[in-house]
Amino acid sequence: MPIEVRPAIRFDDVRTLVGPKSPTANVCWCLSHRIPSKLNNELRGPARGEYVAGLCRQEPPPGVLAYDGAEPVGWAAVAPRSATSFAHSRRIPHVDDLPVWSLWCVRVRPGHRGKGLSHALIAGAVEFARAQGAPAVEAYPLDNGDAKVDLTMAYAGLRGNFERAGFTHAADTTSVLAGHPRVLMRRDLR
Prior knowledge:
Blueprint (H helix, E strand, L loop, with lengths): L2 E5 L3 H8 L18 H6 L3 H12 L5 E6 L2 E10 L20 E8 L8 H15 L4 E4 L19 H6 L3 E10 L2 E9 L2
Parallel strand pairs: 4-5
Antiparallel strand pairs: 1-2, 2-3, 3-4, 5-7, 6-7
Helix pairs in contact: 1-3
């Protein structure tokens, strides 16, 4: 069955991809770059999931999910940069004043990796942003060359995957993740 990428409107499916095993855990839920730091620190345990459930009911939803049949197997967070912490980042520059969208997290479930899902997720996130009127999509992947990257820290994506998806290098950043520099990649949708 082909992989299908759809807007993340089903909270249970989002929870499958980014929710913790324990509902009381204070882990990411892919909120770290989506909400202000103060709110991110205040949301504890189940409140984090409740916040994400609210995002799934909003327009636009918080990203896209990849499905293999009915099973959610991948996640990509994409939103207007103005609604993320990247709007005020000191480490990730703004190239211009274009109201771009940010794509900052790509996650594939264990057992489904190595099947091209990250490519499908990037393409699906771009199409989702395009459908919402985005003039361009930015990503901030690791510039790892041929070096291995810890899968836990590969959520930002890899430069090569974004290049294959039609993104081009727009700027260097001062951000480093897992020992690798991050670069600003952009795909123009105009």
